[in-house]
Design brief:
This protein is of the alpha/beta class and about 450 residues long. The protein contains 16 helices and 15 strands. The longest helix is centred in the N-terminal third of the chain and has 18 residues. The protein binds pyridoxal-5'-phosphate (PLP).
């Protein structure tokens, strides 16, 4: 079915996720096809993808190699159960992921999304402590402004109030966030100030007792809250404190994984290795739902060898290790490797930073942050209407031919890792025109 402006679907039945449904349906923005760096909107316009879809299409759209692998797998083994049965491609994909993993995180548990990866990682952390005779370690430490998906574990660890306030939560406490524009505004790359905020963890340990804490969960670079790179030395400090108190460190790499910073994973980029790492999105270039938890071998072994029950870990999904998603993932890894996409964000980082920080002179811009191929631009909020200016900027950008994201009054960009220099110029010059025209 070919959609266009004169042939729009009925919009009423679909309750859209994380969307202002009434606002959207009154003025829809529909994408009907995609290729390379571009979407096509239903009015025929090309829209440059400044967000890799939703931080996931790292190798660009419409990759024939992935399509061919998916088609082939569909016709070879479309689905097979993963409970008490196996299929070869899931083992192959786990092996391939282990080969690019941070040192030692070579045991892989498959899920279908970032949210599932986070909740799975939390269960693994608790199972690990129980296997070692420390079953009272069940509390989680997260961070303000953290986003870890929408499962109950993820919203408990997360620190975005709208995602949490309606629901009962797991026992969790939070460190302060690291966004400090008073000291760090317009820093390029890592902000210089704020490593001491990691010491919040010491305070939470003093408050709760280390013996009750299972895991600390952070995004190495907070993404959904508006791209907040960690202060210099911050992650190293968290690692040290976790080690000193036997608490597992979980990096949520759902956004930073698969090349976003210029290394396969942020753990490698920062030289800080977590005990567990949650991933999704770029694992299949976004084309099929999939996630994976990377687990330090000792953590895996403690659970798997430390159990008297035949089945060591009572957890899994019907679609864990789905053969078609694994085929998409293997083809995706091939592209990332062959085209040098694990390191390309590093090669472009200076160009990206130069272009973005060129927007600093705009009157409404109060901060610009960047790392790898991620960027956050803060706009001064409209009086008594926080978020309205950010939303207006996102809509105006779309009309001007680029896709960006708005979280409140923060604009985020994270283009596919195949972006050209000319496309970076286009993204940033369009942003300049859009922000300049905002009221
Ligand atoms: N964790 C992080 C850091 C994310 O950015 C996201 C999604 O943006 C998630 C978890 C949730 O992933 P999903 O939407 O696939 O459940």
């Amino acid at each position: 079915m070919a959609y266009d402006r004169d042939n729009r679907p009925d919009l009423s039945a679909y309750w859209m996720p994380f969307t202002a449904n009434r606002q959207f349906k009154a003025a829809p923005r529909l994408l009907v096809s995609a290729s390379g760096m571009h979407y096509r909107a239903d009015d025929g316009r090309e829209v440059l993808d400044g967000t890799s879809g939703l931080w996931c299409v790292n190798a660009g759209h419409g990759r024939p190699e992935i399509a061919a692998a998916v088609q082939n797998q569909l016709m070879t083994l479309d689905y097979a159960p993963s409970f008490q049965m196996g299929h070869p491609i899931a083992f192959d994909f786990a092996t391939a992921l282990a080969q690019i993993a941070p040192e030692g995180l070579d045991r892989i548990f498959f899920t279908n999304s970032g949210s599932e990866s986070v909740d799975t990682a939390l269960k693994i952390a608790m199972a690990y402590h129980r296997a070692r005779g420390q079953g009272q370690r069940t509390k989680i430490v997260g961070r303000e402004k953290g986003y870890h998906g929408v499962g109950f574990g993820g919203i408990s660890a997360g620190g975005l109030v709208n995602n949490r306030r309606l629901y009962p939560l797991l026992p969790a406490d939070h460190m302060r966030h690291t966004h400090d524009p008073a000291r760090n505004a317009f820093s390029r790359g890592l902000p210089p100030h704020g490593a001491e905020l990691a010491d919040d963890l010491e305070q939470l340990i003093a408050l709760h007792g280390a013996e009750t804490l299972a895991a600390v969960v952070v995004e190495p670079v907070a993404g959904s809250a508006g791209v907040l790179p960690p202060p210099v030395g911050y992650l190293e400090r968290l690692r040290k404190i976790c080690d000193a108190h036997g608490i597992l460190l979980v990096f949520d790499e759902v956004i930073t994984g698969f090349g976003r910073l210029g290394a396969p994973f942020a753990g490698q980029y920062f030289g800080v290795t977590p005990d567990l790492m949650t991933t999704a999105k770029g694992i299949t270039n976004g084309v099929l739902p999939m996630g994976a938890v990377f687990v330090r071998r000792e953590v895996h072994d403690a659970v798997v060898n430390g159990s008297d029950a035949a089945m060591e870990f009572f957890h899994g999904y019907t679609y864990s290790g789905h053969p078609v998603s694994c085929a998409a993932g293997l083809a995706t890894l091939d592209i990332y490797r062959r085209e040098g996409l694990f390191t390309r964000a590093g090669e472009l980082a200076e160009t990206w930073a130069d272009a973005l920080h060129g927007l600093r002179d705009l009157g409404l811009v109060t901060d610009i942050r960047n790392l790898g191929l991620m960027a956050g631009i803060d706009l001064a909020p409209r009086a008594e209407a926080p978020g309205a200016r950010g939303y207006a900027a996102m809509v105006a950008a779309f009309e001007a031919g680029i896709l960006i994201r708005a979280t409140g009054d923060t604009l985020a960009m994270s283009p596919p890792l195949i972006v050209s220099h000319a496309q970076i110029d286009q993204l940033v010059s369009t942003m300049r025109a859009v922000i300049s025209a905002l009221d």
